[in-house]
Amino acid sequence: MIKNKFLYKISPGIRTKLSFFTAILVVAILALTSVIYYGQQKKALEEKIDSELRAPLEYINTVVLDLEKLSRSLILIEEFKIRIKEKQAQLSKFKRKVTQKETGFFGTLKSIGASLGLKVKYDYKVRAVDTYYTRYLSPKEIQDFESKVKNELRKENGAPIEQLTYSKLTTIAKKTAEARLAAESFKIRLGEIDEESKAAAEELSSKDLDPKRTKELETLKGNLEKERKLSEKSLQDSERKVLAGEANMVRSLQNFFKGSYKDRISSLGLLPDKIRILAFNRTGKQTLDTGLLFPQSSSTGKKLFGFSEFEKNKDELFQRDKLLISLQEKTDAENYEIAGRQYEVVSRSVFRNLNTAERAKILTKEIQNDDWEDFLSRDREVSKEISNLTEKLKVKLDELKKTGKLKPSADPEFRGLYSEYKRILKKRETFLYELSPYISLKKENANQWKKEKDELEEKLKNLSAELSQLQKQLKGSKPKENSELSAEEIQEKIRALEFQSEEIRDSLQSMILTKDDWTQYDENKSEDAFFGLREAALDDFAFLPYKTDSSSIKRYWKSPEERKQIRAKWKILRDWIMAGESETEIPKQTKNAALNAGILVRSRSEVEELMWNLDSTPFVIDHEQEKGLVFDLLNKDHLGYNLIILDRTDGLREIKRNREELLQYTAVIGTFAILLAYGLAWVVVRRIKAIIKKSEEVGEGNLKVEFPLSGYDEIGVLSESLNNMVTGLREREELRGELIAAEEIQKRLLPDKFPTNLNGRVEFGAFYKAMAGVGGDYYDFIELEKGKVALCIGDVSNHGVGPAIVMALFRSQVRSILRKGERDLKKVLLELNGYLYEDTPDHMFITFFLGIFDSNTSRFDFISAGHVKPLLFDSSERKLMELPAGGSPIGMDDNDFFATTIQAKTVKLESGDFFFQYTDGLDEARSPDGGLYGKERLHKIVGKSLGKSPQDLISAIVTDVESFTNKEIGKPGLSDLTDDIAMIAIRCR
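== Guanylate cyclase ==
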């Protein structure tokens, strides 16, 4: 029964709780559904925009690269024109002078006269002629190159560019080329100034320098320092002019191609009102804007421009000293909300030469792997060897230029140096494939591929054999197996097997075709990046492709034939450089499509200088500072960024509208569900309240209550169960009364007072508690002749009323035998065993301890029949010990065997000695967590309480057991013990 009626009144009932739970459930479902729906809609929107953006973005990248290529080509043409004039002046000193006999009309006449025998005097002229070292790209080659570039400058209708427009472009290109060449000359002069300043400083440091020379050197240093500052300023001005010229060129080209780009971008499905793409070069100058192509796109993202956070993030792209950090940190989209509109901005890096840049990007990740350190170390050693060798080659080429008599290819020393060069390159390549950390992985992949291929071939072979057998069976020959199949079933099985065979053949064909496809194998791409980075950079420098191809690197990884072509081109390029046969012409290779896909735009000497630089620069010099060939090439090829501005406002608003509608519908459904739950709860609670009312009557003691049976649902089952419970309670209460009466009867069988025939020489103590009111444990003190007393304690197997009856009969038999005068303890037990063995079931037996104390002689005779060992405290030695026990329990075996197991013992109990005996329910008492009370704990509590009287000692043990078991055993009534407990104790005074 609930004691606190106030809390019962104010506490929420089942109706409130069920309604609250329903509300929580509805809200949770609503929230979860809303989140999932919003996420799915947003993801769908992103996927849709991404799919719509992919093709236009790829085209924009191509446009940026095309504009850059055309801009570079036009500037390069003007640069070549200027260089040709400069080279003619620079290389004229390397022309060889020859003496030539007079020619022309007068020369012919003199030759005729000489043939007739006349004495003729010829005039001889000295003339300078070109050698290998005085040739550069010819004006004709530049004109051919210019024609091809000009042919790409066509209007949207296919018409060629107007001459006036082309002249404007060439004017911009010429100014830019002049600025670029000026910047190069200033860089060269700054290097010379450094060398001259260093030489002057070294000479000034000598001690025996005369004052005049000292003054000259100090003046020279001052002049060089002034020239340095002037050159640095001029270099900066020239570089600014180059950047401005390149940006102006790209803008002019963009305006020229504006119509073509607009039509192409529209055909690719770009949504101008939702997406705007802006291209920037590395300095932050804008080179392309789709907002200028489409009027409706000009307002897309317009609110972003001038927004401080957007401008700050955009500027950070162009202020980074380290490209890798920029590439790594600017990959995620940035979101902005301005004036109620939602914008997403994504930046993508754009690279000039994708073949070089993609390899460099792969290597930036690979070089972070310590497994490559051995190869990188060897690469640094090889680079140093090549650097030393290139110095010798430079000296040799300078010598050949001065004489001008031999081509480099005709000089043995030149050929020998390049033979050594090739050997060193071959050594570097060997190191790559020997020290690669992917050797074992590539072998595993190859073995796995072969294993899968063999398995498929074996399956195909087995299927073919089975097909052949079925086909024979179908034709009428006797089958060895499956003879029970009909013709239709055989045909069906043949079709199924043919289908499986075709699938396996397709899988085999696919495996064979994709065996050398590197697209999915990063280890192959990594090794190729190390092998091909220098080659690709050299290729990009020497050749200008006719057409920008952003997918060339993907084809290279995918197709072994493409790799073969590209690598053959690389070899041809290096062979041309190292052969020294021609400055401007590569041997024609009609079968190499890769070689014929572009135009050679550098002389052999220019490409040779870059080759030396590439081969002598290690991949990595300092990873933290981003120094080394990998970083140099990545920075060099980095053109800038594409910024994609996505206006997601309309899409997100639509999603929010849909979500709000979902919320409204869910709210209506939720409200209806709550009301329905409340009504249903009211019906259920009404029945439960009737049960509660009846339960309260039971709690008040009325066991004649009957719960109403209503239906066959859970509440009806509960009512029936409660009725059964009340019936059980009535029966248990009746049994409880009977047990209490039985307990009272059993107590009367126990001694109601301690013996008084020992003249006060002995103190007694005793305790008994049954597990279920009545039990099978038993103790007794029996007064014998003057000065003697018998002590008994026993434990009948099992618990309850049956053992209690056996113990009552057993008590009577013990007292009867002792009153007859029998004092031989062994005979007493044999007689008891005889009675019990014959009159009780096999599973019923008694452990029993019997002792007789003679106060006249202090002699204590005792015997044990399977009972626990008693405790004795010897006051003279101040020692607590266990007395011997043992023997078989009474009633377990016949007397012939029983007699062999028991034996009487004798001890002296002097003044102060303490004797204690108990049943096993004491040391086997259990704590709430299942632990045993145990003998060790019992011995400790007995040892601590020896100064007390026997009854107080037993009380102390009872208190300790109650503390250990968390159960009350000292009070009258039923207990929760797991076994009966009995204890007796005596102390001699």
